[in-house]
Amino acid sequence: MTAALSARGLHKRFGSLRVAQDITFELPPGARHALIGPNGAGKTTLINLLTGTLRPDAGQVMLDGKVITLLPPEQRVKQGLARTFQINALFPALDPLEAVTLVVCERLGVATNWWRPVPAFHAAVEEAHGILASLGLDAVCHRPTHLLAYGQQRLLELALALATRPRVLLLDEPAAGVPRSDAGALFAALEALSADLTVLFIEHDMDIVFRFATRVIVMLGGRILVAGSPAEIAVDTAVREVYLGSRRHG
Any idea what DSSP says for residue 139? Predict the structure, then answer.
């Protein structure tokens, strides 16, 4: 089976600082993998390498078996690779329905046809509303984005990513800044995503990681330290020493 997303021998350095060292892994179609590690381990750097925000010094990135290492980020999105950011990247002046409709229109190649009457975009509006409804945002779809609760803003960012119709979705700390009482709803929405969608997410809350991930990749110092099932990671001595702490699971 061809991996949905894979990396082979990725290296990246800034001067003498090595931020990615020989990173190799595969995400099978439909995977729900978590990427964990202490601050500065290289997690966001890896996401940036996979999405084209950074170009590796060596190595390859492949999407559905096709090499995309040199493609710019916008071309990777069109190929089916989408991401969210640790800090919200939203349209504060728009309401959720407008924002998601804009992304749908961009995907369809009609976003610049501003002179067309609104009814011409009815299908795009309907699709956008359906995405928002699937994430529980239909009740606030006309509320200005800057007035949404933070948890709702994180869900809106997910909606914007889903509007590109990705096959692979990379989430950089989707629950960052979200009150713990709302984080469950966020990951419940993620859990309800299509089983065909491949997901890799960065998360620091181990309860969330062990609940939602089927496999965990642990990074340290720009390298992959170990990868395994949540049960394997929970009892791994090296992981406990550098990240989880022996007090958490035993």
Answer: G
For the entire predicted model, the pTM comes to 0.88
Q: Is residue 145 part of a domain?
A: yes
In 150-248, beta strands by DSSP E: 168-172, 198-202, 215-220, 223-228
- The whole-angstrom separation of Cα 45 and Cα 53 is 9
Report the CATH number that the domain containing residue 61 is assigned in CATH.
3.40.50.300
The one-digit pLDDT tens for each residue of the chain (250 residues) are 899 999 999 999 999 999 999 999 999 999 999 999 998 899 999 999 999 999 999 999 999 999 999 999 999 999 999 998 766 668 888 999 999 999 999 898 876 665 555 556 889 999 999 999 999 999 999 999 999 998 899 999 999 999 999 999 999 888 888 887 777 778 788 888 899 999 999 988 888 888 889 999 999 999 999 999 999 998 999 888 876 554 444 3
- Domain count across the chain: 1
Question: Do the domain assignments include residue 249?
Answer: no
Q: What amino acid occupies position 43?
A: K
Position 10 in a domain: yes
Residue 10 lies in domain: 5-244
